[in-house]
Amino acid sequence: MFLLRLIIPDRPGSLGTVSTALGEVNADIHAIEIVEHRRENGTAVDEIVVDLPPGVLPDRLVSACNGVPDVEVIWFSRYGAGGGLHMDLEAVEQMTSAPADAIDILVEQSPAVLHADWAALLDGTGSEVKVALETSATPEFGDVAGRWLPMEKATTLEAPDHKGLAESVLVAAPLESDRRVLVIGRRGGPEFLGSEVARLSYLASLAVTIRATA
């Protein structure tokens, strides 16, 4: 399973042309998501999850997309989150079914929702910043987490020069207070787009609201 992030012309037929090109290399498309519209230059950022049959080199996916006029591949990687995009609603359904655990559920689901590698809930409400909850593969934060607090709103973060974090791109959002923060990381990229920051902000606010109903 592979994830492609593309810049394509934001006009009818563009996505169909890309789909046809991928079909010509025997790629099986599992899901397509429009991540962002860039109306200032008439393009869109799309993500496509595809599967390849045995014997087909992954590089052929990139070549197929780059062969379509005005299409640019800006990210390509294996995709290990189960092949399902549109995870926002599933996360919300899980939170509403267990309101008392809404914060924990968002932390656990956020890597799949944002196609990331790990997530951690940092708690700086005490005398020191602690990791209150983390998913697998979360790196050590050491003493760098304190520089991000307090946090007023969802934002991207500059990765510190710290083992395990330096190679990641980061996004974060406050949960319940400006000193309890959800941090999400992707190893190596791609950068989090403004639309993804907005999605995280919405889900974080929703998780807090749902938790308050418990």
From TrEMBL:
Domain ACT: 3-76
InterPro entries, alphabetized: ACT-like_dom_sf, ACT_dom
UniProt xrefs under Gene3D superfamilies: 3.30.70.260
Protein name: ACT domain-containing protein
